[in-house]
Hints:
By secondary structure, the chain is mainly beta. It is built from 1 helix and 19 strands.
Amino acid sequence: xxxxxxxxxxxxxxxxxxxxxxxxxxxxxxxxxxxxxxxxxxxxxxxxxxxxxxxxxxxxxxxxxxxxxxxxxxxxxxxxxxxxxxxxxxxxxxxxxxxxxxxxxxxxxxxxxxxxxxxxxxxxxxxxxxxxxxxxxxxxxxxxxxxxxxxxxxxxxxxxxxxxxxxxxxxxxxxxxxxxxxxxxxxxxxxxxxxxxxxxxxxxxxxxxxxxxxxxxxxxxxxxxxxxxxxxxxxxxxxxxxxxxxxxxxxxxxxxxxxxxxxxxxxxxxxxxxxxxxxxxxxxxxxxxxxxxxxxxxxxxxxxxxxxxxxxxxx
Length: 315
């Protein structure tokens, strides 16, 4: 669905791209590879990164495992309408980022916690609160409804230890179609009313969307574009007109995921064309909760030129 929303900054050549980003199909993500098989898909936890308003991204995002272990195994049964996911556990020894999974309404979902042996109590939580009437290593949801969209985890408890959490699962419930990419190309000048402005909307009630935004200027020369914008500057605003700078810090974990590595892997997932190293094009990856946003591209050196603004949803 396409809708129009008010833009915060004024623009001589304002292009409004308003989009309703919907949830993805039953897919799980992680920092490792995604392997498709007749009945199983290796799911990897999703991470998100912080914004940059200049030309060099800030190195911030969420935790990732020191050694990427197999985790979040998802079994898709197809006609049976049933999905199963097995959570990982780090116990504070290694970082385990959340897994993400989106299923359609009516699906049956089985979430399995690691088997911790005898004498362990399993406490399932939804958005950090214990779920009544649940016990054992398997939590079954189904048929799944829109209200089931939440973050789930399992706490392991014994009479002599404090509860320790499993890997969390960020569950989305929604339609199976989604918008992959939007792009707009125009000429940006040095004046305040010569910027490129684009608006987009993340659907209400959905989990935060991990989006990649790119303001591409210098690299357009390799595609034969004359006079590309030499120094694009990308700024993001929320619905109140405030600079949007949401993100998570990557913990200093030896061998852990970095912003650059996470961004490169996410760009590969979107199918975006590669940019040369050291370019002054702007690329940011951030989580966007439901709401309306405005992206503005301006000239950073007072010159005019052609710029391409792209918005990608990371699968």
